[in-house]
Structures are given as C-alpha cells and as structure tokens.
Amino acid sequence: MNHEEIIQRLIPCVLQAGDKIMEIYSENFDTQYKKDGSPVTEADYAAEKIILAELNRINANILVISEENRSSHIEKPKDTFFLVDALDGTKEFLNRKSNGGFTVNIGLIENKIPVLGIVYAPALRRLFYGSIKSGAREKADGKTKVISVKKSENKGLVAVASASHRDKETNNWLKKKNIETIVSIGSSLKFCLVATGEADVYPRFSPTMEWDTAAGDAILRAAGGTITEPDLSEFNYGKSNYINGPFIAWGKV
Q: Does the pLDDT value for residue 165 go beyond 90?
C-alpha cells in the first residue's frame, strides 16, 4: 500500500475520531492528570481507540507509538513506524475559549523522516494531509486544495507560537529575529499554518514528544517547508524515549 492509499484509508477514521472528540466536547466530561501533570480526558482515549483499530486493520505489523498507550513508549523505534496523538492540544480542548486549537494526528516515519501526515482540527472542520511523494492538501468547506508554504523575505515575518507553552527562550528567539507579528494557537495547527502560508515560521523551545510533531511536520515538508534544530542541523525521529529537542519549522524564509 503506497502513501496516498494509506492516507485515503486513514481519513475516514480521523474524521470519525474528530466527531467523537466533538461529541465529548459538547458534554460534561472528567479530566485526569498524568504523572507529568498534563491533562487527559475520555476524548483522548476514545479517539485513540478508533485510530489504533484502523491502523491495525491496515497493517498489524507496523509499530504504532501513541500518546495514551504508555506501553508503546518503551518500544524501540523501527525503520517504519506510526506516531499517533489522537487529541493534541488537550489544554485547548479543556479551554472553551481556545478557538478550536486541538487536533487529531497520525504521522508515518520511514528511516527517521516523517513521510506522511494527517492533521484534523474538528472544531474548525479543517483537514490537512500530505506525503513527501504527493504534496500537501487541505480540505475545508467541502473543497480540497493544494497547499504550499509561501516565499518570504526576512522582514515582516509572521510567526506562530504555542498558546499554552510559550517560554522565555521562544520569546527571546522571536525578539532576536525582529519578528513582531505572532499568532498564538494550540496543537499541531502551528505546523499547518506554516504549510498553508498563513505564517512563515514556528519556533519551539519548550518540550514536545515525537507524536506531537510527526503529522504536522510531514505536512509541512510535503508543502515545501523544512524543520531544523535551532542550529539548522537536521531534525529526525526515533530519538531516545521519543522526546524532541528544540526546533524551528520554516516556510521558504
């Protein structure tokens, strides 16, 4: 099964997971807290269950590392594996004034590179997907369009940054680059806004996990963007404990 076939198989389950998230979002639900203090809700678990079942049907032999399946986190990365964050931006999900900044995410890693990604923002009804072989697309309002990063001069840049995890190091980087226009939004939508040309750059210095970034990163790369470490060295996957270091996601800057 090629990348485009995998995407088309996964889109319905991603939409289904998004519908389940919105169903729970409209109700009263319980919130628990993990050992690291991050919140988790029944929406996280319900959406992940839908996605893992479909991935198992597609190919049960491909390793899946998912946020809420803690036993998967001790698995050693293989040449090919999926990374799943069924509800990225749980803090935004809990905050009813978050402007819908939460997403469903599936990324496929091959030889340390994210080659395929799907990101769905169910509250915004925006679906992003792409692969390095077929490019990137967005589906919204019943229409599908090709998306690509915009070419920008190094002035008047628009940055997108975390709504819940902005830190001093990120602010210092933005100041050093003389970037004054900053859009704050949660989850992997930050990658997608760079991929569509709605922003030029997304700097991140606070901690993330590989399942937080893989899908959005794949879409950004498919749209012509890049992601590097702050020193411009390569940013890869399959790291120890699946923990990311700082990174900068770029359009054509």
A: no
